[in-house]
Amino acid sequence: MRDQDLEGTLEDEERTVLTARLTLRRPRTEDAAILAAAIDNPRVAMNLVSVPHPYRRADADAWILQARHAVDGAAHVAASRTDGTLLGASFHRLSATRPEGHDLSFWVAERFWGEGFGTEIAHATIDHAFGAAGVERLWCAVRVTNGPARRVAEKCGFQFRDTGMVRSLSARGSVPVEHFVLERRVWQSLKSWGRRPDGDGASTTLWPRPLHEEGDR
């Protein structure tokens, strides 16, 4: 193995996050075909305003290259801990429009919908952003038609802030979105309580903790 390959492998391991069912790791070049196939599904792409549709292998290659050299955030792909199947991805990066904050985005391949993976990926990415990356505030823009993503955001403690329009590459035009925000102090409270608020103000469901996380170095 070449020295640069070994260095890249060690860096990938340092940035890996393990949850109960998933390994969140840095994307690799060999992930491109699977990522392209999953995001090219219009039911996935239309909920992701920052990706084009159709979504090609070249788009996945470009995202992976950008993700591996990002200096203002972090990106992970989510793979099953049992068989390595890639089932989603997430990232947080410095917001271009919101001060002192990062934008959060995540998605799950359609065949894995309804199994709670979106919440698991989001929780782990939020913990990484506030923990290893030292982010102060996370923003999440959810299309108004995307009820499941809205429920995930609320489960994770995000609070509704406002509505607006954003440019969507997949829709080739502007689409209405709801903006949600999660402050570090709220995240810290949720982690210390070990619980999240539900819709009626009660506190239910233990906040899942990643089993292992190494910060960016």
UniProtKB/TrEMBL annotation:
Keywords for this protein: Acyltransferase, Transferase
Parts of the chain that traverse the membrane: none
UniProt keyword annotation of Acyltransferase present: yes
Ranges of residues in domain N-acetyltransferase: 22-187
Ranges for region Disordered: 193-217
A Pfam entry, by short name: Acetyltransf_3
EC number: 2.3.-.-
Gene Ontology MF terms in the entry: acyltransferase activity
Keyword Transferase: yes
Protein name: GNAT family N-acetyltransferase
